[in-house]
Amino acid sequence: MPHKQAPQVVTASGTVAGEWDNEIASFRGIPFAAPPVGSLRWRPPQPVIGWQGIREANRFAHSSWQNRDYCMAVGGGDPGVFSEDCLYLNVWTALETERDKKPVMVWIHGGGYSIGSGGLSPYIGAPLASRGVVLVTLNYRLGHLGFFAHPALDAEYPAGEAVNNFALLDQIAALQWVQDNIAAFGGDPDNVTIFGESSGARSVLSLFASPRASGLFHKGIVQSAYTLPDTPRAKALRQGEKLASHFGLAQATAEQLRALPADSFWPLSGKLGVAPVPIAGDAVLPHPMMEVFSHGRQHPLPLIVGSNSDEASVLSYFNIDVAGVVQRVKAEHPLGLRLIKWLYPGVKSESELGRQISRDMAFTTMSHVAMLGQHKAGAPGWRYYFDYVSENARALCPNGTWHGSEIPYVMNNMHLIESTQVVGGEFTSQDRAFAEVVSEYWLNFARDVQPKSAYIEGAVHWPRWRPRGDKTLRFGLHGQRELKVESRFMRLRLRLFRLLMTRLVKLE
C-alpha cells in the first residue's frame, strides 16, 4: 500500500520532508554545513543555520563547480546545477520503528577531486537501504575550492594550524552531521562505514590518516585508490601564488582571492590545475597519507581495499602514455625492467606490458601498502581484486574491468542506471545476480565486522589479510563470473612496486 504522507524527520537544524520510493524514504539535499561562500570561501565548514517549519528534501542540491561534459563522459552522469553553495547530503532509509539501529554507510564520490556529485545515478542508495542499512551520499568542494594554499590565507591561522584541505573538512563535517542526526533516520552512529571509489577512495584513506576525523567513523572500504603522492604543502603554496598571479594578483590579499568569481577556477588546467590528491602538511592532513600507512599510524579500524583488472583505462584522462612507462623504467631502472618482465610472463608487447605495469604500480600496489599498514596498526584488513566484466561489455573491454565499473555491483542499483551510461549497454540477469553477491560482502562488512573479526561472511568466506598468507578475494576471473580466494596474489611484483612507486608514479 503506497504511503500517503511524505516521510519527515526532525534533525538538529530543523524538520526535513523527503519522498517514498516503495518502502524506502529518500531525503535529498539536506544541508550539513553553512554555504561556503563570500567570507567563508577557503574556510572550514561552519554550522548550518537552523530553520522553522518543514524543509523540503526531495531534490538533489547544487554540485560544486566543475566541467559538466567531463563528468557526463567519465564521472557518472549529469551533476546538475553548479554553485559554491554545495554542502548537502542525501539519505536513504527504511525508517522502520525498531529498537535496533541500522548500520550506516557513507559514500564519498570520486572524480579526481574535480568532478562528481553525491546525487549521480550510480550512487543511488535505495537498493542497499532496502537490505538493512542507512545509506548517505554527500557533496564536497571540488578543485581549487576544495584544495588551496596561499600565504595570505595561511596568515589567518595561528602558526602550524593552517588549513588547505577544505574538501576533506567538508567530508568530516558530513560525518559529524551523521553522528548528530543519523539516529533520527534509524541509523546507528556507533557503526558508520565510509566507502568511496577513486578520489573518494583516496578520501577514505586520508580520513583514516587525519587526526580531525577521529571517532567519526568505524570502518572503511577503499575502491580503486591510486598511489599518486599527496601534494606537499610548500608546493601547494607556490601553486597558489601562481594562480593568484594568473588573475593579476601578484600581491594578493585574502579578500581579493575570495572576491574572484566562483566559476573562474574549474576551467584551469595544467600547472594551474589541481592534482587529484590532497595537500599534505596542514592541520587536516599533517603527514602524507602513504607515509602514515607505511608506519601503521592511521586510525586502527577495519578496512577493505581493492582495485580492478583494467585500471589503466582511466590513465589516458590524465594524459599518461602507458606504453611510455616501459621506456621510463628502462631509462631509470634498466635492471629492474628485466625483473619486471620476468614478473609478467606471456606479456610480449611494450604497450600491454606498460598497461599492466601502470595498473599495478598506480592502483594494485595501494592495497598491498594499506594491508601492510593495517597489520602494523594491529587492525584487520581485507584485500580484493575485481575482474568481472558485464556480459554485454566483454568485447569492448578485452583488458578487464574498467576503472569505476565495480560501482553498480557494490551499490546493486543496475536497474537505476541508464543504459547509455553503461559500457556495452544493458546489464544482464547474470550481471544482476553477481551484483547481489558482491554487495552482500559490503553489507556484511558494515553490519558485522568488528576489530577482532577473522573473516567476512559471503558466498565464500573472505579471510582477513595476514602477511604470511596474503589472501585476496577475486571477484571474477578473466572477465567471467567466479569467486576465488587466492594466496600471495601478485605478491612479488607488488613488493617491488612498493619500492619503485614513489619515483615512478607521477602526473608529469
From TrEMBL:
EC number: 3.1.1.-
Highest taxon of the lineage: Bacteria
Annotated SUPFAM superfamilies: alpha/beta-Hydrolases (SSF53474)
Species, as recorded: Rouxiella chamberiensis
Every Carboxylesterase type B domain range: 6-480
Keywords carried by this UniProt record: Hydrolase
PROSITE patterns: CARBOXYLESTERASE_B_1
The UniProt record lists the keyword rRNA-binding: no
Family to which this protein belongs: Belongs to the type-B carboxylesterase/lipase family.
Enzyme class: hydrolase
Name of a matching Pfam family: COesterase
Gene3D superfamilies given in the database record: alpha/beta hydrolase (3.40.50.1820)
Record protein name field: Carboxylic ester hydrolase
